[in-house]
Structure formats: structure tokens, C-alpha cells
Amino acid sequence: MIGHGLILRGGTVMDGSGRSGFRADVAIDDDRIAAVGDLSGRVADTDIDVTGRVVAPGFIDVHTHDDRMVRDAGDMTPKVSQGVTTVVAGNCGISLAPLVAGERPMEPFDLIGLQDDFRYPTYQALFDELDRAPAACNAAFLVGHATLRLAAMDDVLRPATGLEIETMKGALDEAMAAGAIGLSTGLEYPPARCCETAEVVELASRAAAAGGVYATHMRSYAGEAKEAFDEAVHIGRKADIPVIVSHFHCHEHDNPELAGEALSWFERSRRQGVRIIADAYPYEASSTSILPEFVERRTRVLVTWSKPHPDMDGRYLDEIADDWDVDVLTAARRLAPGGAIYFGRDERNVERLMAHPDILIGSDGIPLAPHPHPRLWGTFPHVLGHYVREIGLTGLEAAIHRMTGASAEWFGLEGRGRVAAGAWADIVVFDPAAIAARATYMDPEQPSAGIGHVFVNGIEVWNDGGHTGRRPGRIVGRKKNGGSRS
Ligand code: ZN
Ligand code: CU
């Protein structure tokens, strides 16, 4: 009789491809899925009855700022507690490597670390440290354009010179060879705002030559969103690289027609031969550093952290300004460096994004904040509990596809994002009737409901509400051999 290490028996498999769920048993041997089907004739060292539950690929959080959490808080509880088994770090142009910071890096670097966190002359140096102390889930890393700029330029508030671009290319080549999966930009943020499109094309071409992707926080998500999107398309075409537009949305207050039509841009560009898609998170508020120009545009602002005024974490900016008897901009300046949640999007726009086949799910969570946006802990169960089950925006299989199979394909994570014989055993078992986010704006650090078991590379990391303490995560990447460096 054939024997396996583990068999999950009697669940409904939603395999990540988007096709309908089907009843099947799933066998795991070591770090791989060994078989999917009727395995009643087989035995296992461990049997788990998952009747009534969904067995899906572990979720891939394609947009994170988890660089430092992977290194310093490797239990990854905010992620594995919601069924996430792989995170993509290094988004929005900022990554921990390759950079040795000589002073406190400017905003928005504070989203991922303070000066001594940026201590890696090469990406290999960071990977060596991560290999010595693995995290509970897998991680893939993008190379931040602003990080490259800060390392190569004495002043980032201007376009780079030809020589500086050459230096950046060298650093990017090293990172890609070490196992990074592509380039990210944050063109709306100060350290990249002054760059010319040609600079990004040159770097993206290098990432493309190494098989990478291009993820971009565009120059604008407001009035100039269309121009910004066109720039991303141009970069994709010139560099011949797949483009992922980060945390896609349009600020409808600035440009109401845009929000309605924006989602059609993707399909149209793809028909013209550009590989382009987007990620988004399921909440009506955004979150980033405290920046006066962001404060000005938003209706309500909730402070997530403040270095000079830590007692203000979790309070509203207008109330703080009242207490201090100053206007909100002055209050914002006093609170920086810090972070904030910005309200002021239209929920209908969020629903459009969550229903759309061109939107991958990424949390954009910021783990450093003492009072984080609830997207850090709640993104995936919030989509499946609220947008799928409660309001029926899209089917469960289709939503899971945009968290797993499609995500792995777009980011080049081979052997991940599907439940099939031979794939890596990254699996989440959840109760479709109970899955829900519990994290809220006022109480954001809450594990989700309905997550039964989470396996990473065949090892259980989460079991019915509790962490197992195991850390089987790997650095996964663009290389063949199953998408893993190890
Ligand atoms: Zn961003
Ligand atoms: Cu981001």
C-alpha cells in the first residue's frame, strides 16, 4: 500500500487555477504535494479530516513591505494567521538591500526600517542573513529603485547621471543574480519623483534580461493617473517586461470619471501586446508615511505611528491638531517621521477592484507601525469573507485564483500557487462559511477567523488559531528548479 507523510482527507480542493472546486484528498510528502484525488486506498503517518473545508494553495501576498518582518519577526503571524504562505517584499521602490545608509534615509524608507536596518551592500548579504534564520513563510524580493538611487547618488532630488545609472545597473544585476525577482519603483515618492522615465526603462531592461518583473507605485493615482499608467505601459513595452501596477485605485474625488474607466486600461494595453496587471487591497483607506501633501488631500487621517510623539498612535490627526491648537498640516509636520491611515475613497470603487479579474490581491501592509492599517492582518479573509461570501461580488474559486495561481504566474514563482501533484506543499485549509477578517481600524492586530491549517513547504505553521512555532519559509525566486533558491 502506498504511504504518505500526510493526507488531508475529504476537503473541497480549489486548486488555484480558477476552475470549480472538487472533492479530493491531498497527500503531502516532505515539502511537495504528492497526490490529489481519491486516496482512500492509501495510508499516511498523519491523517487530517478536512470535510466541509476548502483546501487551497497558500495565499501569495504580492504587495508587502515585510522586508524587515521576514528578518526580525520571522513567525510572520500577521501573514500566516490569514493563510498567506508567500510574501513579495521590496515594493514601492524601497527595499532593505542593496544599501548601506550613512544617515537616516528620507521618507518613505521609514516604512520598512530605520538607518541601521539598511546595512546590506548587496542583496546576497541580506539573503545570507535570512538563510541563517528562516521565517515561517516564503518570501520573494523586489529590488527597490529608490534604494538603488540612494546607494548610487549623493542627491536623489534630481535625475540620475549616466554614470549613476551604470552604478545602479551593476547593483541591480547583482541582486537579480542573487535571486531577487524584479524591480520596483515608487515614482510618487520624493526619492524617485525627479527621475526621468528613461532611467526606469534602462533599469527595467536589466531586470527583464534576468527574467524579472516590474512592479510600480505610479507617479500619480489622482488627477494624473492616466498619464502615470501610460508611463508604466511605456516602460513595459520599451523594457519588454511584465508590469504590475501596485495598490491600484484612482482617487475619485480628484477625478470621478477616471475611477470608472481605469480598469479597462489593462485589457486594452494587453491587446496591444504589453503584459500589464495590477494588485489591490480590499479597504477604502490607504496608509503610508505622514506626508503633508497626502494629508492635504484626504478627509480623515488616523496616525499609525509617530517617532517624536508615540503617544499619538491610533488617534485622529484633526483631534491631535485641536489638542495642540494648530492646523492639521502643522500637526502632521510635528508628528513626522511617522505613518498614517488616509480615509477618503469610495467603497464602490473598492468593490469594482475586488470583483475585477485583472486585480491580484496584495495587502500593502506595513508591519512596522504600532497601530497598523487592518489590511496587514486581514486582507485575504476580508476578500473571501466580506466581498465573496457576504456580498457575492465574485466566486470563491475566481477570488482564490487572484490570490494564488495568477499571482505565482505573474511574479514567476514556479511550483507555487496551486494544489497539484509536484507543486510545493504551500496549503491553506479554511472554513468557507466562517472565514473573516477580525482586524479593524481601531483594533488592527487580530488573527482572522476560519483558518484551520496552514502549511509552508509541507510543514504546518498555523493550526486552528495558533502558531506552531515552525519556520520552514524559503527565499523563492525567479530561478527555475521549482522557483526556489534552496
Ligand atoms: Zn506604494
Ligand atoms: Cu506599498
Give the gist of this structure.
Helices cover 32% and strands 22% of the residues. It has 486 residues and is α/β, with parallel strands linked by helices.
Helicity level: 25-40%
Q: Give the CA-based shape.
A: globular
Let me know the largest β-sheet: 9 strands, mixed
N-to-C span: 32 Å
Instruction: List all distinct small molecules, including ions and cofactors, that are bound in this structure.
Output: zinc ion, copper (II) ion
Structural summary, described in words:
With 486 residues, the chain is an alpha/beta fold. The chain folds into three domains: 3-57 and 420-466, Roll (Urease, subunit C, domain 1); 59-287 and 342-410, Metal-dependent hydrolases (TIM Barrel, Alpha-Beta Barrel), CATH 3.20.20.140; 288-341, D-aminoacylase. Domain 3 (Dna Ligase, domain 1). It is 32% helix and 22% strand. The strands form four sheets. Strands 1, 2, 3, 4, 5, 19, 20, 21 and 22 form a nine-stranded mixed beta sheet that branches. A hairpin with a 2-residue loop joins strand 21 (459-463) and strand 22. Helix 7 (197-209) crosses helix 8 (225-239) and helix 12 packs across helix 13 (328-335). The radius of gyration is 22 Å and the shape is globular. Zinc ion (ZN) binds next to loops.
